[in-house]
Amino acid sequence: MPAIVHTYKELYIIYVSVGHKNGCCIKSEYKKHTRGVINKMACYYPYETCNLVSSLYDATEPAYFPPGAKLFVASECKTQRDVFRNSGYSIKLSPSDADVIVVPDVLPNEYYKMRCNLVGTDTNEEYLFLVNIQKSGYSIGESVTDNDVEIVKNYLIRLRNYKFDDAGPSNLVWFIPKCDKLKEIMLEELSHPNLPYVQEHLVPINASTKFSAETLLYWKNIAQQDQELLARTICTSNWRKYPFTLLAFLKTNGKTAWNLVGNSDFRNILNNIGYSQYGSIEGDLSKKTISPADYDMFQSYMYYLMGIDEDKGGMVDTRTMESTISLNLTKYLQKRTAFKPLRLSAAMSAESLKELVR
Known about the structure:
Elements: E1 4-7, E2 10-18, E3 24-32, E4 40-44, H1 52-59, E5 70-73, H2 81-85, E6 90-91, E7 100-103, E8 112-116, E9 118-121, E10 127-135, H3 146-160, E11 163-164, E12 171-177, H4 180-187, E13 197-199, H5 213-223, H6 227-235, H7 243-251, H8 264-273, H9 281-285, H10 292-306, H11 318-324, H12 350-357
Parallel strand pairs: 2-10, 5-6, 5-7, 7-13
Antiparallel strand pairs: 1-4, 2-3, 4-12, 8-12, 9-10, 9-11
Helix pairs in contact: 5-10, 7-10
């Protein structure tokens, strides 16, 4: 079943109470004006509460991508067109001339979502209303029946002449950035049904800069001097293969607010790897799935900084380690603690001893 998709100027949340004699009254309403809903499309499956964004992701992740393909790139994509051209692709101005339609990246964990009982608009379809029904004596959304939904729907139609979707009594609404091509997929009204739709970060590119432990050490030095240069360099790299390593690197080097650096291409990379300005290192990293290749690169970089063999490991001076890398990152490395006897040549204070053995 295709999704229902609404574009809107403003979003309002309304709470309506239903009494035991089917009397209705508006308990509260307010305009929702946060980043998660501004300049977005409200999308949901009627009569279903499945993960719409996961379905959208699956529809834009083709199993095969033709090399040297002709691409139609949606205007909302952030990747610089020269990145595609330099990888052997040609850019077409019309989907009918292309082999692949490239759409903005779909980020399952990044989009705002809300539950409601009714989704409606004003008569001009400029304002969107999410209606939550509360029955007297119950919590919001609990024990709401199809009959309750009809009662509230008719009440708001009489009161304000709203228009409502034909949907079930419980709806999970997702707020996805506006994009006509993504809308086509959700509505199942594909303008070119035989062409694959693919997220921009899934288009294979020929990266001019390759990840390695040496590269990351070089970037570590750049991060202290010129963050803009580093952002441009990362955009030309094969970062897609190493999102966990890149996230760990950025969270521990240079500016704390990488989202204020670089162009839209770099900010799109930050979104893809799950970078957040205010999130902790451990909090951001703990949410990630790490591929074997990505983890190998992460270990290689960590061991390179600590000066030990990346295949065999080795002993590390804790003083050197603490001054070289973030201790939060060592939580993701396999390790054991070793003890070495120390003989004192003279009496000393306990505090001095603690410093000596660090």
